[in-house]
Every structure is written in structure tokens, then in C-alpha cells.
Design a protein that fits this description.
Elements: H1 6-15, H2 18-22, H3 41-71, H4 74-77, H5 81-99, H6 133-144, H7 152-161
Helix pairs in contact: 3-5, 3-6, 3-7
């Protein structure tokens, strides 16, 4: 790994910690366990900062959904009970990841977020993904049912434009045909 500023690298290791950063450099490691040529500490920090902003955005959205769900019933959201429960479970996991500062941008979750065919989403659902993409679609759908205006999806699109170059959205579970 290229380290342009040793002081900054030591500061990151001390304050962010090796354990937390190790999840971010996985995509820079090749099959033999070594960093790819020209990988820099700055690249890793860029993706760490992107993930930090993504966590804040997702955490805020989930907080709004949780408050609303306490007052609403499954029928309002147009979801079957099993799908609704699965989405709530997924959002709870995401919320916990956000609140404990865990990496979410390319994290693989244990289960695929369930889909309900009668729901139309803003983007194509990725039925094989265990990454955050389908969760983002579910968040957008649920926020769209809330009684107050917000532009969460617009903010998400703006944030996705900040995804550092060379980090394809496929790592987030976006379908192969989705614009990068």
C-alpha cells in the first residue's frame, strides 16, 4: 500500500483502528492476499469517508421509518406480512450497523431482502443481491409512504455520485445493467 503521509496513516490507525479499516481495504487485495499495485492509503480513506456519509444518510432514513412504523400498520405500506417483517429485520440490522459505525457500503448481509412483486420500485430490484442495494430500494419505498415530504432518494443519488472512482456500484449489490 502506498502511504503518502505517514503521519496521516498513523493517525487513521490510531483513531479509526486497524480492525475497522481492514474491512475497507478488502477490495484492494488480490487473490494472493497482497495489495494491488498503486493502492494508496488515500483511496482506502476515500471509501471509508463515503461509507461514513452513507451510514449517516441510511441511519436518518431508518430512524424516520421506525418512528412512523410505531404508528402505522402493515396495510398502509402495501406489504405482505412476511415481507414487512423481513424488511423490518433488515432495517434493524442496517440501523445497528449505522449506529455502531460498521461498514455498510459493500457489506454482505446473511439474507436476501424479500421482494413483493406487486410493489413497483424506482429502480430494478436485484433478486440475487445480499448487499445494501435492495435495502436502499426498500427504504425509498417506505419513506414514500410517510406523511411528510422529503428528498431522501435525491440525496442518495447525489451521494452515489461521490462514490470514489474505481469503486463500482456492483460492490453495493446494484444490478449489472444499472448505470454506474
Amino acid at each position: 500500500m502506498l502511504i503518502a503521509d505517514e503521519k496521516e496513516a498513523l493517525h487513521c490507525l490510531k483513531h479509526i483502528t486497524y480492525f475497522r479499516l481492514s474491512g475497507y481495504w478488502q477490495i484492494f487485495v488480490n487473490a494472493n492476499g497482497k495489495f494491488r499495485a498503486n493502492t494508496s492509503c488515500g483511496q482506502m480513506l476515500d471509501i471509508y469517508k463515503f461509507d461514513q456519509e452513507l451510514r449517516k444518510l441510511v441511519f436518518g432514513a431508518i430512524a424516520m421509518i421506525e418512528v412512523s412504523l410505531r404508528k402505522e400498520i402493515t396495510r398502509k405500506y402495501g406489504l405482505e406480512s412476511k415481507v414487512f417483517v423481513a424488511w423490518l429485520h433488515n432495517l434493524t440490522l442496517l440501523r445497528n450497523f449505522c449506529s455502531h459505525h460498521r461498514r455498510i457500503w459493500n457489506h454482505g448481509f446473511a439474507a436476501i431482502v424479500r421482494h413483493q412483486r406487486k410493489i413497483s420500485f424506482r429502480k430494478e430490484w436485484n433478486p440475487k443481491s445480499t448487499r445494501i442495494y435492495n435495502s436502499l430500494l426498500a427504504i425509498d419505498h417506505l419513506l414514500g409512504k410517510l406523511p411528510f415530504p422529503q428528498d431522501w432518494y435525491g440525496r442518495l443519488e447525489q451521494l452515489l455520485k461521490k462514490l470514489p472512482e474505481g469503486y463500482p456500484q456492483k460492490h453495493m449489490g446494484f444490478p449489472a445493467n444499472e448505470k454506474q
